[in-house]
Amino acid sequence: MRTKAMLLGAGLVLAVAGTPGFVRAQGGQAEPGRTTTHTGGAVPGETSPGVRPPPAGPLPGAGGQGNLDRLQQFRTTGTALQMETVPQEGRRADALRRNLERIRLPEGFRIELYAVVPDARHMAIGPSSGVVFVGTRKTRVWAVTDRDRDRVADEVKPFAPSIQFSVPNGLCFTPDGFLQVVEHNRVLSFPAAEFFYEGPDVAAEVVVPQGQLIPTSEESFNHGARVCRIGPDNKLYISLGQPFNVPAPAKMDLYNRVGIGGIIRLDRDGGNREVYARGIRNSVGIAFRPGTNELWFTDNQVDGMGDDTPPGEINRITAANQNFGFPWFGGGKVRTREYANSEPPAETVPPMVETVAHAADLGLTFYDGRMFPEEYRGALFNAQHGSWNRTTPIGARVMVTFLNQDGTVREHKPFAEGWLDEETNEYLGRPVDVAVLRDGSLLVSDDHAGAIYRIRYERRR
């Protein structure tokens, strides 16, 4: 199932090798949950004489799944072409800008409002257009466009509004421009998302059908926001948080087999799925260190053990099948009460950084831009969402970790902070994810305030 974007004249046509939405399993049979479609050999946008196109609009009684089926066949869904947009000026934007006056940054750095984006979570930046696609823990994916390149968004509108998403938190791009959207229990791929996003109908493929990312018996409102990355091996990596504070031993066999409480790896078409790493409670941030095969990730650790314990974690995977200690360890070297009398796996990998307890480290990225000073090249930025059950709140900031050449940690410290009002203990914002724009500035998403901020550096004259 490989879709390639080709420019033909002034238009873009998707040429499909094989049939959209159809994957052959061994023996030549279609995989369960995949849809077989036949275009009669016609190029998308044309119709073979032997194929009668269905009427426009959603399939009767099928709702969002019907629309997804139509998009896989390059058919229109009947969704209104006039799409809603999110106002970028007014009282709310003014209040967000006032809040940013409180943010403390190193000398020379400035922070500004980039876009008003409701429920903004993890971000993926289009490799050719610079459009910022933003996931949520609800039912929307947003497309954020800076049309005049003044580094402030001009338009924020829904992406693929004809599809019914469910917690489309995890977004990542392949090097050749396919947008991967990982929902709670489904994975979709959007070839040429940067081209089709202007309208409501977009080319779509099903990578993992609904109900097959995890067993439906394990679906939960807790720890269900996924994140993803494409690795140097061109495979798709997805974190699967487990839903409990500490799972019961009876759950562990299933979780280890499926990859819940771990990170899985699969081909871009959904094949050859394997569990890549285990012993992870709930990672909501993964990133490959440039020039290496190292996959770094944050992990949110056990609640209810005290204000200052256990620590959160930033970890590094250097090979497949490593185990990072959960649920035997609640964070760092702190053992959980539930597994105190059980022997941890041999060769458990300790964290690279023990972060402040309950600060909720989420999205992370390695800085590969050229705007920031030299010392930041290759540094690891991560967002701390902020605590929810600590007596004195902590977090709601962006951290930076400086590394040595061998990947060991030299220093870990705050980079941008001030979203937590220390007098009232109220959150003015809660950072979720970080991403590097093409100009080298750093974007920070905030699902509490519903915004994306841009941090830039002003060179001394």
TrEMBL record:
Keywords, comma-separated and alphabetical: Signal
Region ranges (Disordered): 25-66
One Pfam family this sequence matches: GSDH
Domain Glucose/Sorbosone dehydrogenase: 215-383
Cleaved signal peptide residues: 1-25
Protein name: PQQ-dependent sugar dehydrogenase
